Predict the structure.
Amino acid sequence: MNVKGIVLLVIWLSPVLHLTAADTEEGKKLFQARCASCHNVQKKLTGPALAGVDTRYPEEWIIRFVKSSQSMIKTGDAAALAIFNEYNQVVMPDHPDLIDDQVRSIIAFVKQEAAAAPKDDAPFPRPGHLMPDLMPLSIYNFPFMIAYVLLIVVIVLLLVFLVNIKSIEKKMHESNGEDV
Ligand code: HEC
């Protein structure tokens, strides 16, 4: 692509870029003012972590829920009822003054935040994470413990038998009335 092409592409895309930027900016402000007291993108607070919410429900469902979750619960919306019960029937306040586009901008902000979250990409396994359990012999592992103890008993008996094999042989011959 030549320079002219790139310039044209940028000019053509700029309204789109501008729109999405404005979207998430507005979404961030709204989220902080209206939702952050109960919601975080990554963590559970009073309400669920909102990361991935756009994949859990259709956009239209989220808009209705944010505007008035309780009226959805009263009309028997199964998904709304399920999350309401999961959160011990804590009532999420209605936001009837938010217009659809404002809720969309909040969703866009949540999506952006979720994608920007740092990933756990350590180049080695973290201790206690992916490390194999190298201590099967522990008092908390009874089958292993019993197997080990039995193994040791068997080995000791075998050693005692081997050490005394001569005298045992002698005794057997004697009891058969043979001379050694
Ligand atoms: C007073 C606390 C509170 C505030 C403020 C609040 N919520 Fe909630 N939200 C909850 C609770 C609690 C739930 C769990 C469902 C229920 O109990 O009804 C919830 C559930 C949700 C869900 C469903 C999430 C899921 O994973 O099922 C969405 C979406 C949501 N809230 C969005 C918002 C948005 C957007 C705002 C801001 C405009 C907001 N909430 C403000 C408490 C709150």
